[in-house]
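[Automated response] Your request has been received and processed.

Submitted sequence:
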Amino acid sequence: MILDEMLKSSKLTGQEREVLDFISNNPQRVLGMTVHEVAKASFSSSSTVIRLCQKAGVSGFTEFKYKLATELPTIIELDDDLKSNGFNGSEASREVLDRIETVHRNSLKYTKNIFNTELLNRVASLLKTADRIEIYGDGLNYPLAQLFCLNFQEVGVEAEAYDSLNLMHAKVYRNRKVRPLAFILTHTGNNEHMYGIAKKLKAEDYKIVVVCDSVKRSICRLCDETMVIKTTKNTLELSNIVYISSIQYLFDVLMSLKMLNNYSEVSETSDEVEKIKERQN
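Generated structure:
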Protein backbone atom coordinates (compact mmCIF):
# COMPACT_ATOMS: atom_id res chain seq x y z
CA MET A 1 0.00 0.00 0.00
CA ILE A 2 1.21 3.48 -0.86
CA LEU A 3 1.25 4.77 2.75
CA ASP A 4 3.24 1.78 3.96
CA GLU A 5 5.80 2.24 1.18
CA MET A 6 6.15 5.94 1.98
CA LEU A 7 6.50 5.36 5.72
CA LYS A 8 9.38 2.94 5.10
CA SER A 9 11.34 5.43 3.00
CA SER A 10 14.64 6.65 4.43
CA LYS A 11 14.90 9.45 1.84
CA LEU A 12 12.35 11.86 3.33
CA THR A 13 13.23 15.23 4.81
CA GLY A 14 11.96 16.20 8.24
CA GLN A 15 9.20 18.35 6.72
CA GLU A 16 8.15 15.59 4.33
CA ARG A 17 7.90 13.13 7.20
CA GLU A 18 5.69 15.58 9.13
CA VAL A 19 3.35 15.74 6.12
CA LEU A 20 3.37 11.95 5.83
CA ASP A 21 2.55 11.51 9.51
CA PHE A 22 -0.45 13.83 9.08
CA ILE A 23 -1.68 11.93 6.02
CA SER A 24 -1.24 8.49 7.60
CA ASN A 25 -3.16 9.59 10.72
CA ASN A 26 -5.97 11.21 8.70
CA PRO A 27 -6.36 9.27 5.43
CA GLN A 28 -10.11 9.80 5.05
CA ARG A 29 -9.87 13.50 5.85
CA VAL A 30 -7.04 14.01 3.35
CA LEU A 31 -9.20 12.74 0.48
CA GLY A 32 -11.42 15.80 0.88
CA MET A 33 -8.58 18.33 1.18
CA THR A 34 -6.62 20.39 -1.33
CA VAL A 35 -2.84 20.39 -1.45
CA HIS A 36 -2.87 23.82 0.21
CA GLU A 37 -5.10 22.58 3.04
CA VAL A 38 -2.84 19.59 3.69
CA ALA A 39 0.18 21.89 3.73
CA LYS A 40 -1.49 24.22 6.22
CA ALA A 41 -2.70 21.37 8.47
CA SER A 42 0.76 19.76 8.54
CA PHE A 43 2.59 23.09 9.04
CA SER A 44 4.48 22.72 5.78
CA SER A 45 4.23 24.06 2.22
CA SER A 46 2.41 22.98 -0.93
CA SER A 47 5.74 22.28 -2.62
CA THR A 48 6.69 19.92 0.23
CA VAL A 49 3.41 17.99 -0.16
CA ILE A 50 3.90 17.69 -3.92
CA ARG A 51 7.53 16.63 -3.53
CA LEU A 52 6.46 13.93 -1.06
CA CYS A 53 3.90 12.63 -3.56
CA GLN A 54 6.52 12.49 -6.31
CA LYS A 55 8.83 10.51 -4.03
CA ALA A 56 5.96 8.05 -3.66
CA GLY A 57 6.10 7.47 -7.42
CA VAL A 58 3.11 9.54 -8.51
CA SER A 59 2.97 12.76 -10.53
CA GLY A 60 1.37 14.92 -7.86
CA PHE A 61 -1.23 15.28 -5.13
CA THR A 62 -4.22 14.46 -7.34
CA GLU A 63 -2.78 11.12 -8.44
CA PHE A 64 -1.71 10.40 -4.86
CA LYS A 65 -5.29 10.93 -3.62
CA TYR A 66 -6.56 8.62 -6.35
CA LYS A 67 -4.23 5.81 -5.20
CA LEU A 68 -5.07 6.44 -1.56
CA ALA A 69 -8.81 6.35 -2.36
CA THR A 70 -8.48 2.96 -4.06
CA GLU A 71 -6.70 1.50 -1.01
CA LEU A 72 -8.80 3.16 1.70
CA PRO A 73 -11.79 0.77 1.56
CA THR A 74 -9.45 -2.15 2.23
CA ILE A 75 -7.81 -0.31 5.14
CA ILE A 76 -11.17 0.62 6.69
CA GLU A 77 -12.76 -2.79 6.05
CA LEU A 78 -9.90 -4.72 7.60
CA ASP A 79 -9.64 -2.43 10.60
CA ASP A 80 -13.40 -2.57 11.21
CA ASP A 81 -13.46 -6.37 10.82
CA LEU A 82 -10.90 -6.82 13.56
CA LYS A 83 -12.40 -4.18 15.85
CA SER A 84 -15.81 -5.88 15.67
CA ASN A 85 -14.59 -9.28 16.78
CA GLY A 86 -14.16 -8.73 20.52
CA PHE A 87 -16.41 -10.20 23.22
CA ASN A 88 -19.18 -8.42 25.13
CA GLY A 89 -19.65 -11.03 27.87
CA SER A 90 -22.91 -12.60 26.68
CA GLU A 91 -21.65 -15.05 24.05
CA ALA A 92 -22.73 -18.70 24.02
CA SER A 93 -20.24 -21.49 23.31
CA ARG A 94 -21.15 -21.69 19.63
CA GLU A 95 -20.68 -17.93 19.25
CA VAL A 96 -17.20 -18.21 20.78
CA LEU A 97 -16.33 -20.99 18.32
CA ASP A 98 -17.49 -18.88 15.36
CA ARG A 99 -15.92 -15.68 16.68
CA ILE A 100 -12.46 -17.18 17.09
CA GLU A 101 -12.63 -18.62 13.58
CA THR A 102 -13.50 -15.15 12.27
CA VAL A 103 -10.68 -13.53 14.22
CA HIS A 104 -8.12 -15.92 12.72
CA ARG A 105 -9.52 -15.54 9.21
CA ASN A 106 -9.58 -11.73 9.37
CA SER A 107 -6.13 -11.56 10.96
CA LEU A 108 -4.70 -13.56 8.06
CA LYS A 109 -6.60 -11.45 5.55
CA TYR A 110 -5.32 -8.23 7.07
CA THR A 111 -1.73 -9.46 7.26
CA LYS A 112 -1.80 -10.66 3.66
CA ASN A 113 -3.18 -7.33 2.41
CA ILE A 114 -0.56 -5.16 4.08
CA PHE A 115 2.27 -7.13 2.49
CA ASN A 116 3.42 -6.48 -1.04
CA THR A 117 5.39 -8.52 -3.54
CA GLU A 118 8.39 -6.19 -3.48
CA LEU A 119 8.78 -6.49 0.30
CA LEU A 120 8.42 -10.28 0.25
CA ASN A 121 10.96 -10.53 -2.57
CA ARG A 122 13.47 -8.42 -0.65
CA VAL A 123 13.08 -10.50 2.52
CA ALA A 124 13.19 -13.71 0.44
CA SER A 125 16.52 -12.50 -0.99
CA LEU A 126 17.87 -11.94 2.53
CA LEU A 127 16.71 -15.43 3.51
CA LYS A 128 18.34 -17.00 0.47
CA THR A 129 21.78 -15.50 1.14
CA ALA A 130 21.75 -15.99 4.94
CA ASP A 131 24.03 -18.65 6.41
CA ARG A 132 21.97 -18.80 9.60
CA ILE A 133 18.84 -17.26 11.08
CA GLU A 134 18.52 -15.74 14.53
CA ILE A 135 15.15 -14.70 15.97
CA TYR A 136 15.05 -12.37 18.97
CA GLY A 137 12.09 -11.80 21.27
CA ASP A 138 11.16 -11.60 24.94
CA GLY A 139 7.97 -12.27 26.86
CA LEU A 140 5.42 -13.93 24.57
CA ASN A 141 7.74 -13.47 21.59
CA TYR A 142 10.49 -15.74 22.93
CA PRO A 143 8.51 -19.02 22.79
CA LEU A 144 7.20 -17.90 19.39
CA ALA A 145 10.78 -17.36 18.25
CA GLN A 146 11.65 -20.88 19.44
CA LEU A 147 8.73 -22.35 17.48
CA PHE A 148 9.66 -20.48 14.30
CA CYS A 149 13.28 -21.64 14.62
CA LEU A 150 12.15 -25.25 14.89
CA ASN A 151 10.22 -24.81 11.64
CA PHE A 152 13.29 -23.35 9.91
CA GLN A 153 15.44 -26.21 11.22
CA GLU A 154 12.92 -28.66 9.74
CA VAL A 155 13.83 -27.38 6.25
CA GLY A 156 17.58 -27.57 6.80
CA VAL A 157 18.31 -24.07 8.12
CA GLU A 158 20.60 -23.31 11.05
CA ALA A 159 18.32 -21.24 13.28
CA GLU A 160 18.37 -20.20 16.93
CA ALA A 161 16.03 -18.20 19.18
CA TYR A 162 17.31 -15.68 21.73
CA ASP A 163 15.82 -13.42 24.39
CA SER A 164 19.08 -11.48 24.83
CA LEU A 165 22.24 -10.76 22.86
CA ASN A 166 25.61 -12.42 23.41
CA LEU A 167 27.93 -9.82 21.87
CA MET A 168 30.87 -12.24 21.82
CA HIS A 169 28.75 -14.65 19.84
CA ALA A 170 27.89 -11.94 17.29
CA LYS A 171 31.54 -10.89 16.89
CA VAL A 172 32.66 -14.49 16.32
CA TYR A 173 30.24 -14.85 13.43
CA ARG A 174 31.41 -11.53 12.00
CA ASN A 175 35.06 -12.56 12.19
CA ARG A 176 34.26 -15.91 10.53
CA LYS A 177 32.42 -14.04 7.76
CA VAL A 178 29.21 -15.92 8.51
CA ARG A 179 26.17 -14.09 7.10
CA PRO A 180 23.43 -14.15 9.77
CA LEU A 181 19.93 -12.78 9.26
CA ALA A 182 18.24 -11.57 12.44
CA PHE A 183 14.50 -11.17 12.98
CA ILE A 184 13.46 -8.90 15.84
CA LEU A 185 9.96 -9.55 17.22
CA THR A 186 8.37 -6.67 19.11
CA HIS A 187 4.61 -6.48 19.56
CA THR A 188 4.35 -2.68 19.76
CA GLY A 189 7.71 -1.75 18.25
CA ASN A 190 8.58 0.17 21.44
CA ASN A 191 10.49 -2.51 23.36
CA GLU A 192 13.72 -0.84 24.56
CA HIS A 193 15.44 -4.19 25.10
CA MET A 194 14.79 -5.22 21.48
CA TYR A 195 15.86 -1.76 20.28
CA GLY A 196 19.17 -2.20 22.09
CA ILE A 197 19.69 -5.62 20.51
CA ALA A 198 18.93 -4.25 17.03
CA LYS A 199 21.40 -1.41 17.54
CA LYS A 200 24.21 -3.77 18.55
CA LEU A 201 23.45 -6.24 15.74
CA LYS A 202 23.58 -3.41 13.22
CA ALA A 203 27.03 -2.48 14.52
CA GLU A 204 28.10 -6.09 13.81
CA ASP A 205 26.90 -5.85 10.17
CA TYR A 206 23.90 -8.14 10.64
CA LYS A 207 21.04 -7.99 8.17
CA ILE A 208 17.97 -7.27 10.30
CA VAL A 209 14.22 -7.60 9.76
CA VAL A 210 11.93 -6.19 12.43
CA VAL A 211 8.38 -7.51 12.85
CA CYS A 212 6.12 -5.02 14.63
CA ASP A 213 2.87 -3.06 14.40
CA SER A 214 4.00 0.00 12.42
CA VAL A 215 6.75 1.26 10.13
CA LYS A 216 6.80 4.46 12.21
CA ARG A 217 8.70 2.90 15.14
CA SER A 218 12.25 4.04 15.94
CA ILE A 219 13.56 0.49 15.71
CA CYS A 220 12.60 0.39 12.02
CA ARG A 221 15.33 2.90 11.19
CA LEU A 222 17.94 0.43 12.48
CA CYS A 223 16.69 -2.45 10.35
CA ASP A 224 17.00 -3.40 6.70
CA GLU A 225 13.31 -4.28 6.40
CA THR A 226 10.12 -3.83 8.43
CA MET A 227 7.29 -6.35 8.26
CA VAL A 228 4.06 -5.02 9.76
CA ILE A 229 1.47 -7.32 11.30
CA LYS A 230 -1.91 -6.63 12.87
CA THR A 231 -2.16 -5.98 16.59
CA THR A 232 -5.08 -4.93 18.78
CA LYS A 233 -5.22 -3.04 22.05
CA ASN A 234 -6.31 -5.37 24.84
CA THR A 235 -7.50 -8.78 26.00
CA LEU A 236 -11.17 -8.07 25.19
CA GLU A 237 -10.10 -7.40 21.61
CA LEU A 238 -8.29 -10.78 21.70
CA SER A 239 -4.93 -9.07 21.29
CA ASN A 240 -2.76 -12.16 21.80
CA ILE A 241 -4.85 -14.28 19.43
CA VAL A 242 -4.74 -11.63 16.69
CA TYR A 243 -0.99 -11.14 17.14
CA ILE A 244 -0.09 -14.84 17.24
CA SER A 245 -2.30 -15.62 14.24
CA SER A 246 -0.70 -12.84 12.20
CA ILE A 247 2.91 -13.57 13.12
CA GLN A 248 2.47 -17.34 12.69
CA TYR A 249 1.13 -16.71 9.17
CA LEU A 250 4.10 -14.46 8.38
CA PHE A 251 6.71 -16.98 9.53
CA ASP A 252 4.92 -19.86 7.82
CA VAL A 253 5.34 -17.89 4.58
CA LEU A 254 9.01 -17.16 5.32
CA MET A 255 9.74 -20.78 6.22
CA SER A 256 8.06 -21.91 2.99
CA LEU A 257 10.19 -19.49 0.97
CA LYS A 258 13.32 -20.92 2.57
CA MET A 259 12.08 -24.46 1.96
CA LEU A 260 11.80 -23.63 -1.75
CA ASN A 261 15.44 -22.44 -1.68
CA ASN A 262 16.42 -25.83 -0.21
CA TYR A 263 13.82 -27.87 -2.09
CA SER A 264 16.10 -30.61 -3.48
CA GLU A 265 17.84 -31.18 -0.16
CA VAL A 266 14.56 -31.18 1.80
CA SER A 267 12.94 -33.55 -0.72
CA GLU A 268 15.85 -36.01 -0.57
CA THR A 269 15.95 -35.93 3.23
CA SER A 270 12.19 -36.45 3.41
CA ASP A 271 12.46 -39.50 1.12
CA GLU A 272 15.23 -40.96 3.29
CA VAL A 273 13.12 -40.51 6.43
CA GLU A 274 10.12 -42.21 4.78
CA LYS A 275 12.27 -45.19 3.75
CA ILE A 276 13.58 -45.56 7.30
CA LYS A 277 9.99 -45.51 8.62
CA GLU A 278 8.96 -48.18 6.11
CA ARG A 279 11.84 -50.48 7.16
CA GLN A 280 10.93 -50.01 10.81
CA ASN A 281 7.34 -51.04 10.09
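Summary generated for your ticket: Strands lie at 132-136, 159-162, 180-185, 207-212, 225-228. The first strand starts at residue 132 and ends at 136.
If you did not submit this request, please reply to this message.
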